[in-house]
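[scheduler] slot 2 assigned
[scheduler] job type: sequence-to-structure, two independent chains
[scheduler] chain ordering preserved from manifest
[runner] begin chain α
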Amino acid sequence: MTLNKLKDQINSKLAEQPGNFAVAFKDLSTGDSLLINEQEFFHAASTMKTPIMIEVYKQAAAGRFSLNDSVVLKNEFKSIVDSSLFSLNAKDDSDTSLYQHLGEQISLYNLVYDMIIRSSNLATNMVIEMVNARNVTQTMRQLGANKIQILRGVEDSKAFDKGLNNVTTANDLMVIYEKMAKGELIDSASSQAMIKILLNQEFNEIIPARLPKDVKVAHKTGNITHVLHDSGIVFLPNGKKYVLVILSKDLQNETNAKKAMAEVSEMIYKYVSTPRES
């Protein structure tokens, strides 16, 4: 199977679904890559939580704070539009457990962990307030991710109404995960620490869904209405690894789209794991 043939197969699989898709794949052993609509903008949804985590580790490495530091958990945040206060609704959050601990001290590490593995919006807003969204975007530029734009936390409806949303491209997410996989984000220890968190991801319906159990995926998903994403690093038992990003928007049937995206992930896995004639 050639890369071109794989690309054709992926395109025809995704063409069965109403919606728009982007794919960015890079085999870190061979350098093979496959790109489909990789520069197109997508609402970042929760994929933006990985850039936020990177910024936390960057600032911690610079000595601004330690991941063991604790903060008081609150549910009151400022809109980026006019600084008016808003709160999150636990019912709209994929992780409701944190809301039972408002007013208590919680470590920054635990907030980052919940932000990634359960996609906690409350944890995300706490963390983004500490590191500042502007810094996140600036760090992305320094890493060569030129289009990711992190403007705000989650559920800032005034900003949403004005179209002030976090955006990403498949290419940019591929860039940051490749650097993470190579140990080049901040330093090797920070890259490893972030991979360790991403490996505990609890939402596994896309990239890992159809892969063998001994394949490990360090990844972050994202979804809002009509939008489904997954992005991360895939580790094969033989030591091979690759980066895969699959983004989607304008979906009409999210269940079917999720299935198709999981099938694309499986196709890429088969391509990487099948020995090719030299």
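[runner] end chain α
[runner] begin chain β
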Amino acid sequence: MEKALIGMSGGVDSSVAAFLTQQAGYDCVGATMRLFSNDVLGEDQQSTCCSLDDVEDAKSVARRMGMPHYTFNFQDTFRETVMDKFVRCYERGDTPSPCIDCNRYLKFGALLRRARELGCQYVVTGHYAQIHQDPESGRYLLYKAADRTKDQTYFLYCLTQDMLAHTLFPLGSLTKPEVRAIAAEHGFVTARKHDSQDICFVPGGDYIAFLERYTCKHYAPGDFLDEAGHVVGQHRGAVRYTIGQRKGLGLAMGEPVYVCRKDMQANTVTVGPNSALFSRGLRANDWNWFPFPELTAPADVTVKIRHSQFEQPARVIPEADGFARVEFTEPMRAVTPGQAVVLYQGDMVLGGGTITEAIR
């Protein structure tokens, strides 16, 4: 009998993933990752995930299913690979994607290594995505979930061939209502639990409070500039602003203005009209490809530069030193360095990378 380590966050999705894996005949072991201590959260001691309540909920579901459950302390790894990188990205003017880094280094990195130590052949999570193996090339491919409203492939583009070969996504063919119905039918305490929306270590989305608490720094104010380079106001620290932001600028310029650029060395934030936010393309590096080891020829794709947007048609072109250029069919708004760009061909994820610059 093959053995599977179930990543159990204490939510409904991972609970049902555990149940379906057990029903499929695997010898299952539950595992919850302890990623940070409560002092990271400051005054708000209730995390969006990984809290003590979540651990207890995961244990409750595991007990109900008669499977062993462990809590693994991965705080050092999480700090080094996710939180420290989160800080570095903001301080150099980028906008990071910590959930992608958590998948890469923790859920399918550290957890997979622990699974192997326990004699498990697979890691199982409650992500909404599907894995298929190409019978001709033998490569593992990532496909969108059946429930397009819950599809999480954008956050999973970083998974390697080895990770995909040893991962199961039991929820890939189900809808969210079907998952909740299964949980309710089997009496799981997680059946009606709300989905977490925030970054787990940034409750309420206040990333500035996290940065200042984590680094013990106070980020200095500086100048807002217009597109001509004229000073039009004072900002409260360049790290507080993201490309495309309109709210919270405190500027009265006679028309709506948005954050267009940041110069972290000069500590300036440039604002302009909405039209200044559109780009005809982008460059990215740190690519991961699914059908092939590397991109060697241009390809027609659809593209997402943030999880919540609809895909847009584009063309990807390989460049030197591991970079690739993505040219949009129609200009796209607020291309943001540090964020992920993910490319699709139909339901299949072709690959993804990290945006380094917008092409105006």
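[runner] end chain β
[qc] chain β: The first strand starts at residue 3 and ends at 7.
[scheduler] slot 2 released
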